[in-house]
Amino acid sequence: MDFRMLIGHFLGVGALKRFSTEKSVADIPTVRVRPKARMSRERNYQLLEQASSNLKGMVLVNLVASICAAIAIYPYSAKTALYWLCAVGFITILRASTWGRLLHRLHVHPPAPHEKRAFTRRWSAIYLLGLVSAAAAWIGLLSVAVTISEEIKFLVMIIIAALAGGATGVAAPMKWEGRLYISALLLPSAVVLALNTHSGMLLAFMDVIFWAVMIGGHTNNHRVLLRSLELQLTNTALINDLTELNTSLECKVMERTKDLQEAALTDALTGLPNRRGFQQKLTELLEKSKREDSGLAIGAIDLDGFKPVNDAFGHATGDQLLMEVGERLRNTLGEEHFVARLGGDEFGFIIDGREEIDYLQQIGDMVCRDLAASYSLTGVVAEIGASVGMCTYPWDADTAAELSHRADYALYHAKQARKGTAVIFNHQHEAEIRELANMEQVFRRANLDEELYVVFQPIIHTEDRRTYSFEALARWQSPILGNVPPDMFIRAAERSGFIVEVTRYLITKALKAALSWPKHLRIAINLSARDIASMDAVEGIINVVQSSPIDPGRIVFEITETALVCDFDQAREALNALHHAGVQIALDDFGTGHSSLSHLRLLPFDKLKVDSSFVADINKHQASEDIVRTLIGLCDSMRIDCVIEGVETREHMEKVIDLGAHLLQGYYLARPMQQDDIQGYLQTEQTASVQRAFVENESSSQRKTG
Ligand code: C2E
Ligand code: CA
Ligand code: CA
């Protein structure tokens, strides 16, 4: 068994087992062997301690023996007995008081380790003094006893021999002190016996033999004691060292656990806390706010346009961008606010303290503004935006989960309605989102055959003042929810994942309707991002087109720019495939979202539809007018059609015709209509509202020029 395993086995510590496999031998703190001097100092001190604990019995036995001797002597010489008792009493008091002090020092005020050696020496000397004075008293009594009677002499001798015999055990802890005591009892008594008695030489000889045996016995006892004490000290030292080793291992394990815990709460890329770190901090600050009756706000940040950067320039650039975003957030929000990366291109922050809504809005706006500035990354300059959703405690929610949910609601609202801005949660957002979720549920269960249909809105050509094409617009008449706007249920269908089926179904319906129209009329059909996100979906659309008797040249698929930014390469492949199938492609809602002229250059567009928002304020804002004029000119030079959407008033129409527009769509000219109404509409087209609109337009232009 290897040394580390042995220690591990001995301690039964799991950590040690791990340590033994993961660390090198050099890493293990070695069990230190204590220096000999330190060991002997400790040993002598403990011997003194043992001797002191035997001392009580020794003094007591001495006293009892002395009293017995006094009683025996008393009938012969009362004076001697009395003197003897006084001497013994005096010595006993001295010995008992020094013993008491020794005990006090040992157990109440023990010496410091460095004082132990001197302490042991001093008290060993005092101990010896006590023994020698007791022995001297007995020798003195023996000298008197030999003159009193044979009986008393033997009694005293027996007592001395018994005391010497007992000393082999009780004085065993003290090597030299014990030997001196035994010698002080037996050797002088041998001399006294030799000098004063009849058979003195024989008794003295026996006494010396007895002395030698007692010294041998004492030496043996001392040796055994010493060995067991040394063993005990070695074991204690080993256990101490192992405890030390174990403590140091425990510290290492604790440090490591702390490191692992920290790593589990940190995002490796940005060095910011991760989602778990964010949740932990939020819970902690929320508890604090509740305790102190203060407040806090949290922000959820979502980057707009991160994916295209990642797709176009690769993951290394994407990572660099995320790191820069983390850095900017740290700078914008400063040390006092908590920032975290929640995952992917989502970040979060916490503002601790009860703050005014205006201040929170300012912070949110600042975050959006700072994150929207361009990023100079290695070899590229990237442009992204950020939307922020914020929520406050105690006004909006009072649990961490609710706060996070509501910040997400606000973020969702920002992304849908005010991309690139910061939105602070209000309960209407939640209601809207819940409504949307509810609608999604109803849509999933809807009978699409009965509830879904298509209406058609004419797009008018200014030259012949007639319908040039119809745009098919989906309608959902739900028995539960009533009429649901298409942009809402199309989004629900996108989220629930069956938009591709819905689109195929709508195309089939629209093409079927177009069959009965005059052959020169085109049909425009909207596609959503998901419809071009996979080639399977695109092939499905092409199949529907090819299985219809309608000439593909009459079909226009409209696609918005937001559908292009998700995966540009895929979008290009999809649009090329549709184009090859003979259909036309229109870029819808141009001017909103991520408008880029390079889309027009790189993708096979036949038409561009200028978003209705430009027409809406064309008479109020010169910039809108300029944009529309430029776009019409651009389409002319690129030889693609330009459709102006949202022509709602006579003024709109006048203005866009002035700017050179040829294709117009809007409520002023015609509203979306049912398939059944198209025939009638087309027949009366010459006399109907469209003509009226043109006539009014002309007369108003004449009035102006006149
Ligand atoms: P869009 O493609 O821009 O369609 C034009 C929208 O503008 C239609 O709204 C139309 O009714 C409305 N409109 C037309 N003239 C005017 C006007 O003068 N003023 C105003 N304010 N609006 C006008 P609608 O039918 O509610 O459709 C909204 C959006 O829903 C569409 O915008 C399109 O993005 C989406 N959509 C509609 N049908 C479908 C479809 O079948 N598939 C897909 N993927 N999306 C569809
Ligand atoms: Ca459209
Ligand atoms: Ca449009």
Structural features, described:
Helix 5 runs antiparallel to helix 6. The termini are far apart. The protein is of the alpha/beta class. The protein contains 26 helices and 16 strands. The protein has three domains: 36-239; 275-425, Alpha-Beta Plaits (2-Layer Sandwich), CATH 3.30.70.270; 448-701, EAL domain (TIM Barrel, Alpha-Beta Barrel). Helix 24 (650-658) links the parallel strand 15 and strand 16. Residues 1-33 have low confidence and may be disordered. The radius of gyration is 53 Å and the shape is rod-shaped. 34% of the residues are buried. The strands form three sheets. The protein has an eight-stranded mixed β-barrel, surrounded by four helices. It has a five-stranded mixed sheet with strand order 2-3-1-6-7, with helices on both faces. Bound molecules: ligand C2E and calcium ion (2 copies). Ligand C2E binds next to strand 9, helix 16 and strand 13.
- CATH architecture descriptor name of the largest domain: Alpha-Beta Barrel
Low confidence ranges: 1-33
Overall average pLDDT: 88
**CATH class category of the largest domain:** Alpha Beta
Please give the domain count: 3
Distance between the termini: 113 Å
The Cα radius of gyration reads 53 Å
CATH H level, superfamily name of the largest domain: EAL domain
Q: What's the overall geometry?
A: rod-shaped
Number of helices: 26
Strand content: 5-15%
Helix fraction?
55-70%
Structural class: alpha/beta
Q: Could you please say which CATH topology of the largest domain applies here?
A: TIM Barrel
Number of strands: 16
Bound molecules: ligand C2E, calcium ion
Sheet with the most strands: spatial strand order: 8-9-11-12-13-14-15-16
Largest sheet: 8 strands, mixed, barrel
